[in-house]
Specification:
The chain has 812 residues and is mainly β. It has seven helices and 45 strands. Residues 63-114 form the Secretin/TonB short N-terminal domain.
């Protein structure tokens, strides 16, 4: 089926291209003439809360004004109308608030309490060292964050953390219209992706899959042997930011790969009313509507709430493959006392794709395929249904002497139902002949997944030997249960080149029971860590975790007489040490080194049917970090070495007895080494950038490269610039994603298939029609590059061709 735009969408597209042409012509001239800020400007800002007014002032004046939320809480501004010089405008905005501005850098100010005994305003009279950004990124316009606790649970800046951290902020997601987790991670420096048939995205960093996802710091688990992987299918409407810590994170998460952890941080209720409504249209009948309302529910603001809802419907560049998403999120936050905050939230995400994405990568003669990007691999009736509900409850209690207790819980419930008719796929095997005769596998499967997790910490400062240090102790618990049942229908042969995705829909009641598959894993742990200031410039982060781990795996092929695979493993008292040393070269730059152990049980089996022993190893990292412009620009360079034993590697030509599944062998002496570079944040007022280069190579003990389906090198770039002067309503941006060559080896055919280096370029423009209304236009894959965005098994997934998206947003 050739998808077409609806008449309305086609009309909007025509208008968008007209606007784009009208915008582009004056941009070059305006960029040259408006770099410097005018001395006197016209302002039209209505009275309101101080935070809201300052946000509008920053946009109109082209400056950044930061203020601690504890100082601005409950304060109002009289607004500003007329022509003013910058210092006059700022003085009038904060008149009567008891605050005064302090210059921290050109075009950057911070409000502090007035220090003059007479109450007179003293511009620049006081120097401060606090960064202008906090942890929350919404509303800052920034591409970085002021603090993060994902790596160590300690509230540190990125520079103070001795590991590599990338943050995709709310502003970055809005600018590039990144609406799904897979889209976000595909743009994250140092992260690469493979994808096999269906909706299973395998996310990699530093040569290993990322299977640990946190929600507001609470750890959840993902098992990539099942297709029930909700964490990679999440919609991003409800999140403030995504933090990705690369490397081993065993101190906080326990058993896991040395790839890293993805922490998604939800939006929280605000003390002042704020809301937006936005809608988007795009290529292939893309339609999206999103609303967000937040604010106080009582006169004092001690009870606050927020509701986010979104709906997305779209066809795709692949024939007969469509997507349907529904998102609803509600959260309440209450100040039970002056020192106690309680938070409860529920989010519901429904994802219903129809058809099946991807194409066969290799023919049965070992030759690589080359299909049109519009091809897909599923019958028109092929369907997947994911229903995910997340319930969270958290409490934060301020204790004496600046100590704090935090307890957070989450319960995730996932239901999946799939009725499939799609191209057959398994590792190292093709199911399509050079003449185009392909095998279509018909199946019906149901899966349920339940996760319960609790995280509790106590942390605070203490004095020792003339220095102030910080200590954290905590415990966490995770219980993951996944049940999968599948039945199969008869395989069907089709002429793949001409089948037009047409296949009679079978009666699934006549399917034959095929498989039942259960995974149950439980992990608990206790940890302690401290940040010890050995001197004003030298800081030691030292910690350890003790973990208990239980893993149960059951697989029964119901159509086979082979005995079920029933495997259980228990590990107790596994100690994971962590050490990091940070030396401050200057107030803005530091060097660091860190170390941690690796421990990961696994379910892969060898050719005798034995489950491989847990992966063990060590993770080393050293690097340099810079934090500039009061923390609004972060830079880092890191080199790392990961050593692992018992790594599962495909044992070519071998299968697990009685199952037909591919067998694996344990590889000792495997190592991954690489380099990460990143620059993120504000280069100058109005100019945001995130750029990163990564090199990662994984080898076995003989020096043979592993994970060849992943690129050795990758580069990510995205930047925006808000014009000044008369063109200050216009923001332009663009970027590129580049991956080096990658490939898969099929030992059955002694053939390697893959692709050369490729780069994808994207552009955007946003125009603020008024203080409340704005529109954003994104042009993706500018040069219409044809490439695989990921491949695995014998499936390849083409990236989207050139496409356009337009979004209109109204902020109340």
């Amino acid at each position: 089926m050739q998808t077409r735009l609806t008449p309305l969408a086609a009309a909007v597209r025509g208008v968008l291209f007209g606007l784009a042409v009208a915008w582009v012509q004056p941009v070059a001239q305006a960029a040259q003439a408006t770099v410097e800020q005018a001395d006197v400007r016209s302002y039209d800002i209505a009275a309101g809360s101080l935070d809201s007014v300052l946000g509008q002032f920053g946009q109109q004046a082209g400056v950044m004004v930061a203020v601690d939320s504890q100082l601005s809480n409950g304060l109002n501004s009289p607004g500003l109308r007329g022509q003013f010089a910058l210092d006059q405008a700022l003085a009038q905005l904060i008149a009567g608030t008891g605050l005064q501005p302090v210059t921290v850098a050109p075009g950057r100010y911070r409000l502090i309490a007035q220090v003059s005994s007479t109450g007179a305003m003293e511009l620049g009279a006081t120097s401060i060292s606090a960064a202008g950004l906090g942890a929350t990124t919404e509303g800052t316009g920034s591409y970085t964050t002021g603090s993060t606790s994902t790596a160590t649970k300690l509230n540190l800046s990125i520079r103070e953390t001795p590991q590599t951290i990338s943050v995709i902020t709310r502003q970055r997601m809005d600018d590039q219209q990144l609406h799904s987790m897979s889209e976000v991670l595909n743009q994250t420096p140092g992260v690469t992706m493979s994808q096999d048939g269906g909706e299973r995205f395998n996310i990699y960093s530093r040569g290993s899959a990322i299977n640990t996802y946190q929600f507001d710091g609470v750890t959840t688990y993902q098992e990539n042997q099942t297709r029930n992987m909700p964490s990679t299918l999440m919609d991003m409407a409800i999140y403030d930011r995504v933090e990705v810590v690369r490397g081993a994170t065993g101190l906080m998460t326990g058993a896991g790969d040395p790839s890293g952890v993805v922490n998604v941080v939800r939006k929280r209720p605000t003390r002042d009313f704020q809301a937006y409504l936005q809608g988007g249209l795009g290529s292939w009948d893309y339609q999206r509507l999103e609303a967000d309302v937040s604010g106080p529910l009582t006169a004092t603001g001690n009870l606050r709430g927020r509701v986010v809802a979104a709906k997305q419907l779209n066809n795709t560049f692949m024939q007969w493959y469509q997507q349907d998403r529904d998102i609803l999120y509600g959260v309440l936050e209450a100040d039970l006392t002056d020192s106690t905050v309680l938070r409860f939230s529920i989010d519901h995400q429904r994802y219903r794709p129809t058809g099946a994405q991807g194409v066969p990568m290799i023919y049965t003669n070992g030759q690589q395929t080359d299909f049109s990007r519009s091809k897909s691999s599923g019958a028109r009736w092929n369907s997947d249904r994911f229903e995910t509900n997340n319930y969270t409850l958290g409490i934060e209690q301020q204790l004496a002497n600046d100590w704090q207790l935090k307890v957070a819980t989450t319960f995730m419930d996932v239901d999946r139902d799939t009725f499939g008719g799609s191209y057959s796929s398994s590792t190292n095997r093709a199911y399509i002949t050079p003449e185009g005769i392909a095998t279509i596998d018909q199946s019906w499967a149901q899966a349920t997944q339940h996760q319960r997790a609790v995280d509790a910490t106590v942390q605070g400062p203490f004095e020792l030997l003339g220095q102030t240090h910080e200590l954290i102790v905590g415990a966490n618990y995770l219980d993951y249960v996944n049940h999968h049942y599948a039945s199969s229908g008869p395989d069907v042969l089709v002429d793949y080149d001409h089948w037009s995705n047409e296949l009679p829909k079978p009666d699934r009641d006549g399917f034959t029971p095929f498989m039942t598959y259960d995974v149950d894993t439980r992990q608990s742990g206790y940890f302690a860590a401290g940040r010890f200031n050995l001197s004003d410039s030298l800081h030691l982060i030292l910690g350890a975790r003790v973990s208990n781990y239980r893993y149960n795996y059951y697989l029964e092929l119901l159509s086979s007489s082979a005995a079920p695979q029933d495997y259980s493993m228990t590990e107790r008292g596994v100690v994971t040490p962590y050490a990091g040393l940070v030396y401050d070269l200057t107030a803005e730059q530091s060097v660091y080194v860190s170390y941690t152990d690796i421990f990961k049980p696994q379910s892969s089996q060898d050719s005798s049917g034995k489950v491989l022993d847990p992966v063990v190893g060590k993770n080393y990292e050293l690097g340099w970090k810079g934090e500039f412009y009061e923390g609004r620009l972060n830079a880092n360079v890191a080199a790392y070495l990961i050593k692992r034993d018992n790594v599962a590697e495909l044992d070519a030509g071998q299968t697990v007895p009685g199952t037909g599944n591919d067998a694996y062998k344990a590889v000792s002496g495997a190592k991954t080494q690489g380099l990460d570079l990143e620059l993120s944040g504000e280069l100058s007022p109005g100019w945001e950038l995130q750029a990163g280069y990564s090199h990662s190579r994984t080898e076995d003990a003989q020096g043979q490269r592993l994970t060849t389906q992943l690129p050795l090198d990758s580069f990510r770039l995205w930047t925006t610039y808000k014009l000044a002067g008369d063109w200050n309503r216009l923001t332009v941006g663009g970027g590129a994603s580049w991956n080096s060559s990658n490939s898969l080896y099929f030992s059955r055919y002694n053939s390697r298939v893959g692709q050369d280096d490729y780069a994808v370029f994207n552009l955007m423009a946003r125009y603020r029609l008024s203080d409340h209304l704005s529109t954003t236009l994104n042009l993706n894959n500018l040069f219409d590059e044809k490439y695989y965005s990921g491949f695995s098994g014998s499936y390849g997934h083409y990236g989207a061709p050139r496409n356009v998206m337009m979004n209109v947003r109204y902020d109340f």
